[in-house]
Amino acid sequence: MDSKLFVIIPAFNEEASIGLVIDDIPVEVAEVVVVSNGSTDDTVATATKHGATVIDESRKGYGWACLAGMHHLGSKAIAKDIIVFLDGDYSDYPEQMLALTSPIQNDEYDLVIGARRKELREKGSMTFPQIFGNWLSTTLMRWLFGSKFTDLGPFRAIRYDKLMALEMEDKTYGWTVEMQLKALKRHYRYMEVAVPYRNRIGVSKVSGTVKGAIFAGVKILSWIFKYGFKK
Question: Smallest Cα–Cα separation from 35: which of 14, 52, 51, 57?
């Protein structure tokens, strides 16, 4: 299937890592969109220097940044194109991207999640709240929806038309789980691809703080229970 690849990278103060992320993205990608989520460092200048399209979203929140990136691509992407979401902290391996997009390009799946399996994770790359939160969330999704997800990893690929049909709305921490829950509800074809995961550059804005971890946990669980008991 002839489709273009677009990458959306939400970024808040990632000047030390964003250039590394962009440089490791496969050349097959048509456009890399870095969404500066109110960065106060040199994230914008660094991303621009490394060839990315940079847009600004001053409203703080992972979901806000992702929605801004989607809006930017609205005049460029067509139904069969593929959107890849990738973090800007260099914890993922961008060179693994084609392993996520190929099953969609071959029209075998609609959504592919990069699963951060324990055996492929660098020691310390995921905090205990992240590990426990992933386990609890995916366990509840399995009980309530018969889901086979094992991770809420941010490294993911989805067909553009399928993404737009989800009518994504979460503005902060619930973005990833919202996408997976809505994909389940709409009976999308999905799979996971085991990907390596390393310690991020810099401090996490979510799992690196008690407040962030708690807010993320509450938001994720609220989405699960909202859909779990929705007719």
Answer: 57
- What's the number of domains the chain is made of? 1
Write out the H or E segment, with its range, that includes residue 162: helix 160-165
Give the span between the Cα atoms of 75 and 126, in whole angstroms.
36
Type of residue at 182: K
pLDDT tens sequence across 16-63 = 999 999 999 999 999 999 999 999 999 999 999 999 999 999 999 999
> In terms of residue numbers, what domain contains 155?
5-228
Tell me the two tokens of residue 55: 């847009």
Kindly report, residue by residue over 89-99, the tens digit of the pLDDT.
Answer: 999 999 999 99
- Residue 156: how many CB atoms within 10 A of its CB? 23
Place of tokens 């992933």: 134
